[in-house]
Amino acid sequence: MAALSASHHSEQSLQQFINQSPWDHRPIRERLLGRLVDAVKPEAWVISELAFPKHGRYSAAVHRQYVRAERRVSNCQLATVAVLATEEHSVPVNWRLVLPEPWRADEERRSRARMPAHELPRPYWQYQIETIDDMILDWGMAPAPVVVDAVQLATVDALLAGLTDRKLPYLVQVGPNVAVRYAPDRPRLAGGRPVMQPGVRPQPWRGTAGDLVHRLHDQPRSTVSWENQERVHRSQFLTAPIMPPGGETPAERSDPTETEHQLVVDWPFNKSRPRGFWITNLTDESLSYVVRLTRLPVKVHSRLESLASRFGLRDYEGRTFGGWHHHVTMVSAAYIYALLDSLRATNLA
């Protein structure tokens, strides 16, 4: 933008606009989301993660920390991002900068990064929920399943409970050690929801997802095919009904209409063990639809990396907390503009 301007002060002015100006990024993101969903209907909202490698220790929220998406430790800023996802597009629309614990009481770094007083470290899953809360409570987010890779998340139960409490449709990838409560042979209503008999409380089997799969290894599996990079892939999937996340059973909640949940397990042909576990409340959808959603996070991560190189996502040279939010908001705006312009040209062709 600065290069296209005739003024030699443009670069300095643009840097000040990004790093120093006090404008609020939130209404900009809301407006961008509104323009975007008018043109692109989301198949899912994927909560992803992106690392911003940094040298030094004074950029907002920088720390040597574990990057879940990359399975390694890096000196970086770490962000969670809500992405509008379809088979063709992945568009980042809302961001949170994860604040490491050492930043809680480091007044020197907080001051230099202009960190707001209310911005304090909190559990990682809470940042993920917050990106969705903005969009639901304030922006009128278009309904679509929320898809999250939580394999490396230490507190997956809190994330699942948060999504369940908000009555959101979701699909969350988990590890084999996540605790589940298997609920077989429960009477069903016509719509597939469990019937809770007065005075009768179900006694579900409790254990890990991996243990449950071992318990059900002789159960029939369904074969599902999907296309990826012009190739057709096929795998087997095992499904099992489980209780909703949380400390109470549906009977203890006195809610006979509690949405059923399922464990979905990807078990490739001729393999001795599964390669993926998901928990979902999308029990009224077909298995092929759910499997298609399981493939979106990988596509999203790859597309975000492409976006980063094309639109300078990691090129922010400032250090302030507000400046970082300005920068990622402007990158999202540039990408959304380019996407809408491309769609407009395609429609006119």
Mean pLDDT, all residues: 86
Written as H for each helix and E for each strand, in order along the chain, the element string is HHEEEEHHEHEEEHEEEEHHH
Rg is 22 Å
Number of helices: 9
Structural class: alpha+beta
Total DSSP E strands: 12
Shape: globular
What this model shows, in words?
With 349 residues, the protein is α+β, with helices and mostly antiparallel strands. 33% of the residues lie in helices and 25% in strands. It has nine helices and twelve strands. The strands form two sheets. Strands 1, 2, 3, 4, 5, 6, 9, 10, 11 and 12 form a ten-stranded mixed beta sheet that branches. The radius of gyration is 22 Å and the shape is globular. The two termini are 28 Å apart. The model is unreliable at 187-192 and 247-257 (pLDDT under 50).
SSE topology sketch:
Elements lengths: L9 H10 L5 H15 L4 E10 L9 E5 L4 E14 L4 E9 L8 H6 L11 H15 L7 E4 L6 H10 L4 E5 L4 E4 L22 E4 H7 L6 E7 L2 E12 L18 E7 L8 E5 L6 H8 L1 H16 L9 H28 L1
Parallel strand pairs: 1-5, 5-6
Antiparallel strand pairs: 1-3, 2-3, 3-4, 6-12, 7-8, 9-10, 10-11, 11-12
Helix pairs in contact: 2-9, 4-5
